[in-house]
Amino acid sequence: MSLMTEITIFVLAVFVGFEVISKVPTTLHTPLMSQTNAIHGIVMLGGLIVVGFANDGLEYVIGTIAIAFGTINIVGGFMVTDRMLGMFSRKPKPKAEPDGKGGA
Amino acid sequence: MLEAVLKPGGDGATALYIVAFSLFIIGIKQGTHPTTAKRGNLIAAAGMAVAVVTTLLLDGMGNWGLIVLGLGIGTAVGVIASIRVQMTEMPQMVALYNGVGGGAVALIAWSEIRHGISIGEDFSLDTLIPIIFAGVIGSVSFWGSNIAFAKLQDLIPTRPIAAPGQQAINAVLLIAIVTICVILAVDHESPSQGLFILLLVLAAILGNLVVLPIGGADMPVVISLLNAFTGLSAAAAGFALDNVALIVAGTLVGSSGTILTLEMATAMNRSVANILFSGFGGAPSGGGGGTGEEKPHVSIGAQDAAIKLAYADSVVIVPGYGLAVAQAQHAIKEVADELEKRGVTVNYAIHPVAGRMPGHMNVLLAEADVAYENLKEMEEINPEMPRTDVAVVVGANDVTNPAAKNDPDSPIAGMPIIEVSEAQEVIVIKRSLSPGFAGIDNDLFYEPNTSMLFADAKAAAAEIAAEIGNL
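Predict the joint structure of the above. Result:
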């Protein structure tokens, strides 16, 4: 890919990012931040490429740590987001129910 | 092992990467609506799976043992941490995940330089500039996020920490970093690895020094900003590696993170530059240090509070981070249940930055089964305040401070607040009269219609719920 092609992609992606996200209810800010946080874990691919084509000892070490870091970012990020959003998806309980839940 | 089928940069790999980033865009889009958010997250995760598998299938991939080792360690740590983390600890968890992401970028940049030098590659500026950018920003993001994590986890004091001449030191560091970048770029055909490592170290120090002086209250904005930074550094790594998936995904995070950062800063009526370079922390305006304790205030017990609440018509609960720390969301819900049984209208007033991130408080209350329609945003609840009998402030402080409206010299002047002092009566549940994150005294505590209930939020709420039940 030529540099200009890459810059074109970059600029278009900036606008897509702005457009896709500009109207978010406050409620979803934390989960959404967590989800986008997980998405930048995609740098892990860079780690895979580095290790996959590495040819000296230190590169092995650096690259493996990079893979581990990136994987934590991805796996942890998506799982934590899922847990947060799971809090919202519970069905609203009927108002008339007499006794609330016990333990706090 | 796996059969390698795709050429790096070939049509097959690129097509799969396009599928991956399309799923990211759809995932983020769906993440902006309450009904589709959960599915959106799964779609984005599926996109990530496509991107990872595509990369593993690239022709020429090797060192499978190390790859499996890295993936295994990362998955184990990520899964365990995500399952064990409390909902109250979400902000620092996001900070930590963001930090490791930035760390990965910095390490990849270092490795690219090293690899290029070892095979005698002539670096073009097209490759070297993105590598330098990725290294610097990744390193700043890694260390900055770790400091943010440590502050939110109370491993280091949340108050601003700054050495005299801090700004000058930061400026010198920044000049040194830019100078090294220029030297590396000028000598781009044979860059020095030693200089690049020095660059990473200086960026690390800068990351520490920039975040240390920022107070705990501003931390969400900082995490959000670092999230955007990490995204941009990932995009830079994509330029260096000619990887379209990295460029698009990193850029998406960069631009969305920037919007989120601006929204948070707006909610606090501060500019991002102001947060980064001033730090609250300065001398409290007026009154001086320890005079707060001497001002007259009304103190009540749980029983009195229960009576005030039980005979009210409408009650507004104003939760803050203290509620989260005390894990009091379930106990507060019990108070609300008891009141609703008696026919009292109970609503929750959510300040945009309640908790430590926008939306954090909503997550905590949802965890305690509070109905979505009872959560009122600040603009919605403020006009209702004069018609509210009792406002209960639980672990919130700065977001209720009338000084933001009345005192133009206050450090939080102009910040939108929940106007609890407009309510007929105010009950503040708090451990002491100590100031909040902003480090300033709250005039609300000394107003004639305010009663202070000094206790742990969870214990106090449980006691109040029991007392109301006994009435």
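Helices of chain A lie at 3-21, 29-39, 44-52, 57-88.
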